[in-house]
Every structure is written in structure tokens, then in C-alpha cells.
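Predict the 3D structure for this chain.
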Amino acid sequence: MRLKISITGVVQGVGFRPFIYRLAKDIGLKGYVQNDTGGVTIEAEGAESLLTDFLFRIEKEKPALSQIFSLRHSFLHDKGFKEFVIKESDKEGEIRVSVLPDIETCDECLYDISTKGNRRFNYPFTNCTNCGPRFTIIEDLPYDRKNTSMKYFRMCADCEREYNDPSDRRFHAQPDACPVCGPFITLINPTLENGGMGGFKYQKDDAINKCVELIKEGNIIAIKGLGGYHLVCDAMNETSVRILRERKQREERPVAVMFADIESVEAEAHVSMLEERALCSVERPIVILRKKKGTRLPDSISPGNDTIGAFLPYTPLHHIILQRLKRPVVATSANISDEPIAKDEDDAFKRLSGIADYFLTNNRKIVRRCDDSVVRIVAERQIPIRRSRGFVPLPVILPFRLEKPVLALGPYMNNTIAVGIDDKVYLSQHVGDLETPLAMEFYEETVNDFLRLFNIKPEVVVSDMHPGYYSTIFGEMHYKDKLVKVQHHFSHILSCMAENDIQNDEEVIGFAFDGTGYGTDKTVWGSEVMTASYSGFKRLYHLRPYRLPGGEKAVKEPFRIALSLLYETFGDASEFDLLSLSGKERRFYTDMIKKGVNSPLTTSMGRLFDGVASIIGLKHHVSYHAQAPVMLEQAAQRSDEEVKYEFRIEESLIDFRPIIQEIVRDKRSEVPIEVISKKFHNTIIEIILSLSESLRKSAGITKVALSGGVFQNAILLTGVFNKLNERGFTPLIHQLVPPNDGGISLGQIVAGNFQR
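Done. Predicted structure below.
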């Protein structure tokens, strides 16, 4: 197995490459370490356990003067290295000025803010060259103070002395500040006169103390962070969490919890070694963890859900609040569902006044919104669910060079855009679903911002094929002569191929399983089995088509999908009684299906998961995207069942009807839903394995790319990944960009290079 690591921020001349060389030799690995235009690249081959040890020891034992701003890693297939060497520096390609992501507070700055007598004691904007805001304060390049939102704060004599002293760790730290000259905190009640400015008002340390007091009393506070506001309340207060949900219109979707330290997380959730690494990494993402039985967190944090999203403080303000509060807090994006996160005071007061009781704000401008990142450890790999703060805008390095600058406009859901030049792709922060006017405005801001920030004039622009996506419409309006439209699921597979170092002449078997995607036949796809290279794809298998009565309504009401699956399997039969519908309702929906009225055909695997969850009684109506499949997965995790259901593959169709027949039989026989759920997962895994075997035999391909939102499912991804390995395949999964639609823009960049 090969471990590929890209490190940004290592200082030259501190012995980092020799350190890596000695460490690799000590562990018994083969490969290389090399300086390049973006930092340091390491490739090492050996047993997976040794590679994991190598990864941990790099961060633990690195030279004292080296600074790691970001460490991105992925496990890939072997190249067959003979020994470990230090390679000559790679100077090929244009050296482009890097924009660093926002970096969590370093240990030295934590010491400063917690030490009485230090001039930055309890100062919530403390930073140095090793930490602090970057991406969210940069207005333009080069990265100088005058080109950031810190330009409005003139440094005092002490800060200026540090800033100009090469021996000081704040030498040329552009956000450098202190209580004398820097930004400060204000606590406001916006319901009072003059928007609160003339009424309830606390500043600086008094504001933080009052904020902590208000959280303890059960209030909801909108707190301005690095890339926008969080809505914050006491995570142990059931009433506060419930009120926050009601006001935010977030009925059941889990909310993230910020803990003071790793020990506090471990008290409430199971934390593996890799999950601890993710929690404590400089990126500080939200990490999806399994709750412990007997957790003190109220069920309203993640209703009916076995997991929580946990993360650690990443700014001095977060650290100060949590140390004083001495309990975890809910820290969720400050918005109404489907809107972008609030970042400006006027915007926050306008949109959040009905949610937050008080606002803890500050006078440093946020230049660009940036939500928290989310990751999950699956199959011993770190899988991004949302790639944003901490990771953006570091590039994904391609295994080839782009012939022309490319702009990717992304999809409709979980949108990110991307710009590509040379061998680098810069994906944007999470934009979200392009469903509201504010989201569309944020989207346009992001496109223009990235083109300006990276000084790229695209010669090729790529969008999804769906004619109704706002991103596609935007491309037609602004880039018609340069626009290339690429099929959604092909983009998924291309993104997986690119981040797994697939070469130009290679072909893979691709499984693109998700909820929806516009097909070349103008129907809704979502279970695509293909062979693919960078130059094109061939769709070979997919689910037997079925209808979605009510179209998009079926996504929020899975009972409609369940009824369609039952109708396709049994016709007009008594099995409809599993859904507890009245006779009138059954006739209404079956008539829609029979006549094809507002009932588009689909081959979606994601919708199949929805329908099965409804058939077995888990969820008939959902309050957030993929809620039913999440519940199906978690039910399956409570079972050790190894049996699978029967299935048929005829010509190009995966026939789900035998599966539905047996699920109904089990349901009527009162087989536990946990067992039914696990058998269903086992069946989907076996379908993937069976088709992989068939295509290896017919096409001689052994590399299998797994992409699409369905592969966020831990049981499915782990099962397929391990079993493909056991059978001699090379499974390719996402470790740098999300398998969901947040990774589509990377695939679109690749398509823009090969599909013109």
C-alpha cells in the first residue's frame, strides 16, 4: 500500500526532508520525500499499519522549527518503489502564490492567552505566523496586511516590533494584534433601541464573561467566528437545544457540538486513534462519532441518531469561552435552513434576530464566508463530507497538467466551484444547495472571488448537464462560448480518478451511486455502473427504472418511493398496507405512477435506500436530506447478519424486485428491522462485487472507483472496500474531496481538459 502526503508550510532549511528520510528508514518504508512548488510531497510504501504509524510520527516528531499548516494524506495503490530516497526539488510548473486556509490556534498562542501577565492574556484575536485567520481575511494577493481586513488596525509599537523582528514567531504575521491596537469583542442585544447599540452592550472581556453567563442561563448567542457566525447554546440544556431547533427551522438534522478538549469528547463519544487525529488536526473539522451509551448529551442534539458531530475550539475566543463555561456547546452555522452562513453584522441582525437572543460580535471584517468542514473515518480512511474551513483553498494536485485554465461551476446540491491551472485545482469552500436567492448570490460571489483571487481567466468552463440547475443557467448566461456540459455521474468518477493518481491511459470500473443526476437520456440517473477513462465513459448497468410520484416531493416523503417500488414489484397488491395509507391515497398515488403524471422515471440508488427505509417502517417523511438512508445504515449497524437477499442482473438492468419481495416477506414475518437493514446493505455490496467480477472478466480492468453520496454510508463503503481488496481489485475512494456532490467540481475540471 502507498501513502501519499502533501504538506504545506514546512520551513526550508530546518532538516525536514532528512527527518522524513530517517523516519521512513527506521520504520522500513520505501518511496521518497521531495520539496515542490507547494511545500513537501512524500510517497511511502509498506504495510498499512506501518504507514499509519509513519503518519502519526511525522506530526509528533517533526523538527521543532518546522511548521505544518496543512497535512493532506491518502492511501493509494503501490507504485513499486525499491528504496526510500530524498529527491531533488521539483521546480516544474509555475510557482503560484499560495493562499493558506484558516489555521487553529497554536500551543504557543494558547499559552499567551492563558498566562496572567502576558500582554495577550485572554485576548481573543491572538495569533502568530503558525496560526490564525488567512483565507477569511485576505482581500487580494500578495498576502500583506494592506491586502487583508486587518489593514484597518494600525499596529502599536510592541506589535510592530514583533512584526519586524525575524527572530520573533510573529515576524510578518499579517493578522498580528493585541488588546491595545487590535479588534475587540462586543456583546449586543439587537432588540433594544438602535439595533442594540444604544442599549444592552458589553465590550472586550466583560462581553465574554457576560456571554458565558447568558449561555449558562439557557440563552442562544450568535457568535462571530472566522468565516461567519455560529449559533451557540449550552449543549447539555435540552430546552435550549430544542428552542434553537424551533427557531432555526431545523427539526431533526443533527447539530454540531464543540468540546473544550479531547477528554471531554471521549466522555460522550467513542473516539478511535484516527478520529482523535482528525479532531486534533490543524484543520479542526467536525468529526462524525458514535455516541456512547449513557451520554449526558440530550437526544435533541441528534434525534434518533447514533452519532454526533464533534469538534474542538479553533480560535482563541472559542478556547476562552469553553474554558470559562466548563461544558460543551452547540455550535451550528448561523442561518435558516438552505441559506448561506451569516457573516456581516447587518446581515446577521436581519436574518438571525428571530433566532439569537444576543450577539457576540467584533469589529474585524470577514472577507468571505466559510463553513466548518466535516469528516468521517470510514475503512480506516478520513473521508470528507464537507470540505471547507481548514482545507480551502489548498489545491488538489492532479496526476497530469491542464492544457488551459478551467473553471468548474459545480452542481446544484452541496455546491462547490473550482478553478484549475497547471496541475492544481482550487476547490471553493462549501457553498451549499443553490435553492434560495441568498445562496445564488453567494454562489456568484464565490465564482468571481476565486477567479480574481487566483488571477485566472478561464478558457474552458464546465457545468452539469441538468438544464434546470442554477449553476448550468449561470454558465449559459456568462460563458456560453466556452461552456462544456458534462454528465453528473461521469464527473463523480472523474473526481475519484483524479485524486487517486489515475493516469491518462488508464481505465477504471466506476460505481456512481447517489440520489439524482441528469442522464444523457434526460431521465433521473443515480446507480451508474460504467467503464471510464478521462476521455469518456460507457454506461453498462443501472437499476431497473421506477417512478417518483410527485417528483421532488418524493425526496421528502419516502413513502411515495416505497409505494412505487411495491407497485413495480407486486402491481396493485395488498402489500401497500405496509405504508399505512388510506385507500384513497393509495389509488391517488398508484394512478400517478400508472399514468406517469408528475412521476419521472429514475434509476437512483439513493432513492432505493429511501424507499426501503419506508417499506420497513423506519421513516415515511424526512426533515433533512438523506435522513432515511442514515437511519437505515444505523439500524444495520446494530446487526451482525451476514445473509443477503436474492437479486437479478439481466442485460444492463439490476432488478430490485427480488430484493423488495424478500424484504416484504421478512417484514411480514416480523424479522427485526436491524436484520432487514443489514441484509439489504449486504445485498448492495454483493451487487457491486458481482458486477466488478463480471467487468474484470470482460474488460480486464481491476481498478474500481466508488463515488456519489451513497458511498458516505460506512457499512457500504467499508464492506465494498475490504471485499474488493480481498478479491484482488484496487478500490479507489475519496479522501481529499467529498464523495457527495461537493466533489463534483474537481471532476468537472478534469472533464474540461479532456472533453472539449
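Residues 543-677 form a domain with the Nucleotidyltransferase; domain 5 fold (CATH 3.30.420.40).
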